[in-house]
Each structure stands twice: as C-alpha cells, then as structure tokens.
Amino acid sequence: MEIHKITTNKVNQNYLPSKKEDTKLLTAQNTDRSEVLMKELDKMAGNNIAFKGNFELNLSKEELEKRTNKDYLITKKMLKADAPEYLALAEGDKKALKHLVKAAYILEKINMQLDNPHNLEFKEYLEKEVAKGNKNAEMTKVLFDAQKGINAIDSMSEKIHLAKGHTDLPGKGVYPEDLTKEEFHKILTKMLNEGKDEEVKKILTQRSVVERKGDELVGIDYIDKFQEDFAQMADELDKAAETSTNKEFTKYLVLQAQALRMANPMLDAYADKQWATLQDTPLEFTITRENYEDEMTGTIVENKELSKMLEERGISPIPKDFLGGRVGIVNKKGTDALMAIKKYLPTLADNMPYKDEYEQNISTKGDAKQTMVDVDLVAVTGNVGEYRGGITLAENLPNDDKLSLKIGGGRRNVYHRQIRFISDKAKLQERLDAILDKDQQKYYLDEADHWFTIGHENAHSLGPKKAGESLGKYRNIIEENKADMGSLAFVDLLTELGMYTPEQRKQIIVTTVTDNFLKSKPTLSQAHRVRTVMQNKYFSERGAYEITPDGKIHVNIDKVVPIAKEMLAEIVRIQIDGDFDKAEKYVKDNFVWTDNMELIAQKLQKVNKTLNGRTESELAEKLLAE
C-alpha cells in the first residue's frame, strides 16, 4: 500500500508549554516572521498572484482570541539559530543548508495552490488587512500560517474555515472547484467512449493538476503547471550540491534538481531511488509526495461501470500527490538506535499473514532495502508542515505507486525529533492520572511511543506490494490500520529475538493502548484517527483492555499482541482481495464511537485544551534571510 505518514502525533501534540503567552504578543511575533518569510520568497520565486478581491473573515474575535491563545495553540520548535547541531556542521554543509531551506519554502508556495486555489490570494488579503491594523486579520493570519491554508480540521475533529464561503473541496486545488463527483465520472466515461485513453491517463495520474477544457478535462503535470517555481527550486538544489560535503547526498540533489525541471516521472524515480539509499549523510532534504488529501479520485471505485472501463484499458486511478518539504540535520545517535531493528526486518516479513499469497517490499532474504534516519528538523513546509489537528511524526517513503520501487529502489524512514519531544512532563502526568489505572502508570513511557512508531513505519513496508486503489476512500484507513497492527503484532517476537526487554514490551503495549484514546470522534476522512477508533472497538470486544469502576483504562497486557495479530490478518486479507465492499463493511463495522471512548474523551478534554498547533523555525528564518 502507499500511505506512510503519521499525522496524529498521538502523545506529543497533547502537551502544552507550561508558560502562558499573551495572544497579542503571539500574533505580533507570527506576523513579523511571516513578513520576513514572504519577502524572501518573493525575491526567490516571485509573487505573481492575480489578486481577485476581498474576502470576509469567518471566525469571530472571541473565537480567534481563543484559538490563538497558547493554551489552545501548541508550538513545536525546530532548531534554533545557534543550535549545536548546526554549529557542528562543516562550512560547506552550512552553505548547502541555506539553499535547501529556500527550496523547501518555494515548495510550500506550490503546495498551497494544490491544497486550495484561493490560498495565496487569501494570504495576500490577510497581509494587506494586517498592514491596515486589522486585529482579527492578525489572529487569522496566525491560524493560516499554522495550518498553511484556509481550511483545516482541529484536534476536536471540527472543520475550521478561515474565510466565509470557502469550505474544503473534495478535489482540493488539484481538480476544478466546481467539479462534482457525478460530473467527474460522466466526463471520464465520455472520454473513454471516445477513445481518449491517453488523456484520461494524464487526468488520473498522481502528479497532475486537472483543469476544464471545454466540456472535457485535461491533466497537466505539476512540473509544467508550476514550471517557474520548480525551476527556482532546482536552482537552489544545484547551489546546495556545489557545497555539500557528502558525495551520495550531492548525487541525490543533482538528480532531484533534474526532476524538477522536466515533467518526466522516471527522473523522479531516479531521484527517489538514490534518496532511499541515503544513510550516513550529515543533512536531510526530502520532497514528500503523499496522497491523503485527494477525496475525488478515490470515488471512481464506487462507480462499477467506470471502474471496469478503466481496468479494461489498464488505467489505475491514483489519488493526487500533495507536496511537502523537510530540511534537517541527521542525528547520528538517534539514527544508530533506529538501525537496531533493521536486522530483524526479513524475519518480520517472513511472519506476515498470508505471506505466500503476495510479494512484499522487504525481502525475507538478503538486503531489506530499508534505510532509516533520526533527524533534527530545521524546517517542515508544505504538506509535511501543515498542523491540522496533528503534524507528521515520521514517514516511510516512497509510496507503492511510485516508479522508483518498480525499478528496484528501496524505502527510507525519516523520524522527526522535534515533533516527538514532550515539552511539559507535568501535563503528561495530569493526563495519565485522569485516564490510566494508577497501577499501570509505571509502564507508560513517552519513548515507547517512538518505539511503536518505528514499528509502524517499518510495517508499511510489510504486506502486499501493490497499490490499493481498488479500496477507494478506505485504502488509507486500511493501510494505517495495518501499520499499527504490524507494530503491535510483532512486539512479542521482537522481545524473544532480543530487540526489546520484557519491561520495554510492557511499556510499548500499555503506552500504545492508552494513546489510542482520542479527545473526540473523528470524521471518516481522518484516516489516522479512524483507525484508532477501529482498534479501540476491536480490542475492547476481545478483552485487550477494560474500564475500571473509577473510569480508568486497565490494559490486559498479555491479550494485546494476540488480538493485534488477529486484526492484522483480517486487514491483510482485505488488501490481498482488493474488494471495495469488503473494505467498506470492515471499516463501518469497527468505526464505532463507544460510550467508553466518550468517557475517556471527556476526561482528556478537561486536561487538554489544545485545538491546533504551529511550528517555529528560528534557524530556517535566519538562513532564509541571508
């Protein structure tokens, strides 16, 4: 499958810095940062927005004051300007880092347009209103910069629209905003009947922006659509390659720059293949391409007639990629700890359910083709940096739909140190006192969440080596559920093999089950959260945990792994069969918000007011201004 991202940072997004900060100061600081960033971006990439007119702010003054107050808006801090990790770099890598940061912020401008066709003009509108002294616009700008767009969803699963009349679109900015599902299917059917197979392929590729052309649609490769900006990015990568001290990293930068100058998927494949081999490099730079956001393409599998026509022509409807940028410095100590699991990956692959019925990414013999690094973050931009109820904790890329895997490339896991850090241990203890059996609190360990995440990311590389387009809107939920259950299902095996101690085994199990409880029922579009509700119901019915008379979670530790194995087998069976109806039934049967979930949610809401978050990137801003 092809989804390799944890957007719900299950532990760390819930804890606030203990020091309160005045909302006015926060908005002023955020506005200053934004002005610096935009001025520098304008110099690099130009700002050719045709401003179309005024907007009307959607949130009231009271709501804005609440949502921008630090009690409700968490801040994740990237590396500071004088960070030891930065100061220890070779001079050539310091120079390269500056250009990588600039490239990442140009990418953010591109992705904002993929996310919503009005994002850039709304950003310009806010800046003009802030300059006029509009305080509501100042606070709205804080939220816009945090979620990187007009529309988002918060940690209570409430949709947030910053501009009146601008709601989230199923096709985001990659499909015409007035295109309905019914018209989309009708146009594709007509084009296929007229023999326009190649045109339809371009519409349904993961890397195109779809526009109207008369009464038809046309797919434009995003390299061609945003040619000038991608060329500017390529220039920055070439400059970084000139001073980079690592030969393999430099080779990747050169290949990636070439891929940004020409709309050729094979060029991306060569760059991805090289990127996936990077292990001992001082710097980290990634262009992430993931397809969680597109809710339009996945509707095709619901149309049986259209799906059959596409299948007969060998056309796979692949959801659109959204683009993110990650810039960082590889942490050697953290990376060495990650690598401890690599030798066990072939054994895990050999223990996957129904292993003889499919090919999987990790071979049971020889090289697992899996690199992994722990990274101190300088900047996360675009899709990676969007703080929308949660933020990316780690990623396993490239996804299964990418050409690099078809030409023999491997995968690479990148873990985000600054995102997983807990800023307030006292707040964590308050949470545990509210929801976890006191006798089991000794087993809760925030680091165990990181161990679980390592298992989750590696489990993405286990299982059927095929994309799951036939599962439609449920494909992401199914894949994320598989990754979670793969992580839990192998805890006992890894303990037997010596990866974990018996104490760590208990810590992983108790921490994971505890963190599966949410503050509110998610929407079906939130794949990462839907799968936790499904697991909660499944585990509850089979006795993996119970709620004590005083309303606390008590984990039946020895039951968890066997139950996880059961669920993993059911999920893999659905992936092998590729049956949309079976996937839909499985999700609906298990996505049930129970009374016990609501009980714990109410407790969580009392100890945690956080609605959203933002990132603060001091070193990146310094480098961007140089």
Would you kindly provide a written description of the structure presented here, covering whatever features stand out?
The protein is an alpha+beta fold and 626 residues long. It has two domains: 12-20 and 70-116 and 226-625, no CATH class; 21-69 and 117-168, no CATH class. The protein contains 28 helices and 13 strands. The strands form five sheets. Strands 6-7-8-10-9 form a five-stranded mixed beta sheet. It has a two-stranded parallel sheet with strand order 1-13. It is globular, with a radius of gyration of 23 Å. It starts with 22 loop residues before the first helix and ends with a helix.
In short:
This protein has 626 residues and is α+β, with helices and mostly antiparallel strands. It is 51% helix and 12% strand.
**General shape:** globular
Q: Kindly, what is the distance between the CA atoms of the first and last residues, rounded to a whole number of angstroms?
A: 41 Å
- Class by helix and strand content? alpha+beta
Overall pLDDT: 90
Taking Cα atoms only, what radius of gyration do you get, to the nearest Å? 23 Å
Helix content: 40-55%
Number of helical stretches of at least 4 residues: 28
Strand content: 5-15%
Give the strand order, joined by hyphens, for the main sheet.
6-7-8-10-9
The strand count comes to: 13
**Number of separate structural domains:** 2
Biggest sheet statistics:
5 strands, mixed
Poorly predicted ranges: 1-29, 43-51
